[in-house]
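Why does residue order matter? Because the sequence determines the fold. Keep that principle in mind as you read this record.
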Amino acid sequence: MNGFFNALTKCGDDREILTVTVISGAFAGEKAILNGKAPVYFTAEDGFLKKHEAELGTLSGGGREQLCGMEVYTEVTGRRNKMVVCGCGHVAIPVIKLAKLTGFYVTAVDDRREYTEKAKEAGADRVIAKPFGEALRTVDGDCSTYFVIVTRGHSRDMECLLEINGKSRAYVGMLGSKNRALLAREALKEIGAAGLFEELHSPIGLDIGSETPEEIAVSILAEIIRIKNRKKVRVIPEDILKAVLGETEGIAPNEKKILATIISRRGSAPRDTGARMLITKDCTVNTIGGGLLEARVIKKAGEMLSAGADKPELLSLELTPHNGEGEVCGGTVEILLEPF
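Structure:
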């Protein structure tokens, strides 16, 4: 598993990453990674997935699938979601805080150093104190990058938009009035930036009647999260990634672990497919929904750890009341438990 996650971290974010796991039969637990449709990693160089390398490109990444008579679980996977905040004024600070809270790697840009210092204090991972155009030339875009433009004026908005126009991106939003948005769109039309003209979210955010900087930040993150989740790209949580790679205090790199992944869901359930939790003898990392569901998974994982299990197991759980206890969601989830 460590080799799998190491290989995943080396994949670029500019191409679609597809992960494949055999979930039953003699080859259960085998994994492969495709980066831009090209296989780049196999857990078993003489295994089932390697043997059927040519067929891997036919998989959709939509969950449980069949591959040459074998059941596999597939995902379109991203390294991490990134946000580039252009402007570090009053609205930017709560945007940065909420972006960090919801798992984004944040780059903050402003031409005033004292403002980028405030962005750094708010939690930005990277700050660039340079003119906007110059700063954005040092920022890479890709299919998991969300650009948020909250500068202090139209000319700076355009400086950002002109640089963003040449980059790959998942989202571009710009703060401002309807008139300011109209001016920006007209300027984009004049320079032939038809794609960005169509993509631009401005006024930015969901219309929830926001007034304060904090409320505006909530509307911006709500819009971005809605767009992000429609893509169905599953990002491996950073805390799980660090724990697997031995970068978490209290979890030894060679300590036995169980990775729990929801691979199917029917009816209502607290988390969707792709939700993950890491379980060790003494702790858990992240969540697959909490409550009795999670307690059952932790119990089963504990039994597997005690028994020294070395093969994955599928656990099917019904989330319906039983004898006055249990979940009331009314659904069924299947969870893949992978020891390593």
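The radius of gyration is 22 Å.
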